[in-house]
Sequence to fold (144 residues):
Amino acid sequence: MGYKTAIQATLEARAYAGAFPEAVYSVARPSILSEGTAQAVKSAEANEIRGAFGVDTEYGREFRQERQGWAWLLIIRFDTEVVLEAFETALMRSPMTIAQDTADGRDQQVLLLLEESSYEHPPRGGASNGTEVTYRFVAELCQQ
Fold:
């Protein structure tokens, strides 16, 4: 499994393994949010959106250009509004890594760093759709 397939599989697996409590609002005080039961991910899709390349200077006169990293989007959809804070905190505290595996065509380790997020939440009270969140990750290639 090359870099792209490994990154895509890792991002999507992390989304499906995440804990996403339902956002619950009190009828008496609708601005107060509390966390309800865990909700399943409706769908998760990851895809690359940008690549970065550079010249490797370790080869003397030989000119060699190599990939330095990517930017990726992970889009997660739910059937209801969810709270994302615990999932995001876990991503920040423990970034995902993909080990170097030369047999699979990966001669460098990949570090997936959370860069930013954007949210679409349904209107409160009887919405037929749920939260959609888009995370942007930087995938850095590095030696182990």
Notes: Strands lie at 21-25, 33-38, 43-56, 64-77, 96-98, 109-120, 132-142.
